[in-house]
Amino acid sequence: MTSLPRALALSFSQLGDPAILKVLGKSLLITLAIFLLLGWGLSFGFEAALEWAGLEEGSDAGALLAVLATLIGAWLLFRFVALFVLQFFAEEVVRAVEARHYPEAATAARSLGFYEEMRNGVRSTLRALLVNLVALPFAILLLVTGIGTALLFWAVNAFLLGRELQDMVWLRHRRDVAEIAPLGRGRRFLLGGAVAALLMVPFLNLLAPVLGAASATHLVHRRRATLA
Questions:
Q1: What parts of the sequence cross the membrane (predicted)?
Q2: pTM above the 0.85 mark?
């Protein structure tokens, strides 16, 4: 059985793989484009609101507010957007890892169609937003503790990410809908917790979704081999 540290180490070692680099480039560009479009739209919205309120220099103020809102939104929503985008390229990451380490599994995998990937991506993103919104009031109450809010959001997203990352791999190999997921809750939580922590680190957060998908591939296949 591959431990999480070993899975992460193998994932880091494969970052130079052309297939992985291709996914990194595409996912980062699309994620950046989403936030740029968000900022562009917000600038028009703020400018219109300021002009409606009769404030002068509305254009400059609107642009400044849009930049600030986009930066705050990027900090709060990056993990949701990045993982949503990765859903469309996850198969490429999983296939690259399988081709190098699990060639037999690679030949037995099924490809997920675009609509299935879209459905999975939208469902996981909405679930993540809903759970985080439910946790928000408790997070506000924990602000007085200094660290409680951060720990709560980390735990919530560790739970969510572990499941999503497992499914990126497992759904390609699941034989029927009744098959039990290979990773238990503990393993999923540890995987999700590691990726959630990476998402909080500048620059590493750009690699975290791909590293998570690659690590999940190692964990799922080693666990499936153990259970077989």
A1: 20-42, 62-86, 128-156, 189-214
A2: no
